[in-house]
Task: inverse folding
């Protein structure tokens, strides 16, 4: 793969940073990899499996090298507009294929509804659509409690509650927020509040705006984009897996299993390792299908 080049683009309220890795086959559809709040660095290993395609990655507006120029909290529609600008700047009008992970998958479903003719195939991997769950009220109350804890007590307590919820299997009990809070130390998190409130996951309204977003299912179904809802083989029962299945049902498509877990494509980035070899092979199989 040719060495990546780094670029910036202005968007309303933000300056976005993105990377382009030119592929060896100009006839191959470019592959865009997006996540939220995870930055482009998280796709470093996975991008290396697609040297035949031009690969585009970026840092969402609240993450890493990108930065906000407004105090307004971004929404999935905001991110969808950012991604549209990114694609136009990086590879032109399209078509492109997209792997979207986590909050990036939420943003890309908003994108497809707004820009139906740009994406050929979208693989939406574990979008955390709490809005789609049968236990949405209890689950969203738990999400709001995570946000409120972060705003009140800081990163350690807020992230501990987030991890406890993310690791919970099955429906969220109605009394979830009344249960004892997990100890941040058990996750290796700080117990003291450093006063900062700019965490890409827990700050900027991200966790509430992403999980509470309700996609325009009719617009997505009407788009020519092939939408593949995917979840990891190790994610059974978790909120992200249950949400993926619920969204697939709403769109009338069969969900697809990918190897490993929520970060199955990671090869050591952020200290986490999934099964990137198998994940990449499955992604190529789906994109070529």
Result:
């Amino acid at each position: 793969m040719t060495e990546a080049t780094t670029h910036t683009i202005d968007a309303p309220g933000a300056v976005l940073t993105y990377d382009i890795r030119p592929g060896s086959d100009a006839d191959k559809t470019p592959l865009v990899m997006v996540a939220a709040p995870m930055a482009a660095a998280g796709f470093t290993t996975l991008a290396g499996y697609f040297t035949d395609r031009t690969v585009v990655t970026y840092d969402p507006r609240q993450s890493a090298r990108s930065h906000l120029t407004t105090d307004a909290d971004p929404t999935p529609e905001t991110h969808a507009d950012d991604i549209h600008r990114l694609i136009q700047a990086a590879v032109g009008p399209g078509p492109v294929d997209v792997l979207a992970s986590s909050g990036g998958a939420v943003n890309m479903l908003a994108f497809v509804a707004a820009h139906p003719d740009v994406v050929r195939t979208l693989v939406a991997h574990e979008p955390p659509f709490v809005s789609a769950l049968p236990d949405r009220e209890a689950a969203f109350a738990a999400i709001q409690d995570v946000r409120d804890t972060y705003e009140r007590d800081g990163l350690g307590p807020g992230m501990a509650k987030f991890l406890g919820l993310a690791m919970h299997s099955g429906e969220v009990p109605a009394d979830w927020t009344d249960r004892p809070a997990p100890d941040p130390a058990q996750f290796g998190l700080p117990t003291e509040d450093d006063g900062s409130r700019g965490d890409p996951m827990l700050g900027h309204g991200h966790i509430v705006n992403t999980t509470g977003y309700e996609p325009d299912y009719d617009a997505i179904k009407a788009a020519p984009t092939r939408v593949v809802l995917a979840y990891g083989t190790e994610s059974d029962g978790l909120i992200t897996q249950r949400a993926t299945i619920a969204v697939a049902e709403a769109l009338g498509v069969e969900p697809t299993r990918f190897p490993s877990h929520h970060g199955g494509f990671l090869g050591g980035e952020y200290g986490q390792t999934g099964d990137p070899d198998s994940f990449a092979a499955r992604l190529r199989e789906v994109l070529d299908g």
Summary: The chain has two domains: 5-129+214-288, 136-206. Residues 136-206 form one domain. DSSP finds nine helices and nine strands in the chain.
